[in-house]
Amino acid sequence: MPTTWENDPRPLTGEPVAIDLLNTRWIDGAGRHDLLVSPEGLAIWLAAPQVREALGNMPVPADQETLDRLVHARAALDLAVAEPGLPAPEAVEAVNAVLAHGRVRHLLTPEGPATAVEADAPSWLPAWLAAADFLRLLGDRPERIRACGNPECVLHFYDVSKNGTRRWCSMAGCGNRAKAQRHYARHHRP
């Protein structure tokens, strides 16, 4: 079976690259899962539409070195979203350590101004792009980077709702469970 994003087993996909990287770990009825335990899982993540768009035409190997660097970036982002608001000093250091492996170069081309992303090695590119995307989200609307309201869920999302009141990773999953629990509690009081 070919490795494509259609084979992605995760319950929540399509978030911005930084959040999507955090969501490579999830919990469901079968237990805890981690997409990034093998280069095959990495290939699935690299095939996600928003990741492909961020990478552009830049080739990235789905190998162990890229996987290790991406898991390193995910750990840094985990620290950065551990508490609401601006990241703690150790999170700042961890994210900056990932960002140190890439840069944006500004260019003038025959078509006009342009930018090009450069990384120390192709294997650093996905990790660097995820960390850079996190900075973009922090600069845009940091209060909209959220953990799911279900305390047993480990997923995150970027709230793009009009009024910014989204609470659940998925209304069909965690949101419905919370509604069912409230309904049960109201109608089955001792």
Task: Give an account of the 3D structure.
With about 190 residues, this protein is α+β, with helices and mostly antiparallel strands. It has seven helices and six strands, in the order αββααααββαββα. A two-stranded antiparallel sheet has the order 1-2. Strands 3-4 form a two-stranded antiparallel ribbon. Strands 5-6 form a two-stranded antiparallel ribbon. A hairpin with a 2-residue loop joins strand 3 (about 100-110) and strand 4. Helix 4 (about 65-80) runs antiparallel to helix 5, helix 4 runs parallel beside helix 6 (about 125-140) and helix 5 packs across helix 6 (about 125-140).
How far apart are the first and last residues' alpha carbons, in Å? Answer: 52 Å
Q: Structural class of the helix and strand makeup?
A: alpha+beta
Radius of gyration: 18 Å
Helix content: 40-55%
What topology, given as strand order, has the largest sheet? 1-2
Number of helices, counting only DSSP H or I runs of 4 residues or more: 7
Descriptive labels:
6 strands; 190 residues; two-stranded antiparallel ribbon; alpha+beta; 7 helices; globular; 16% strand
In short:
This protein has 190 residues and is α+β, with helices and mostly antiparallel strands.
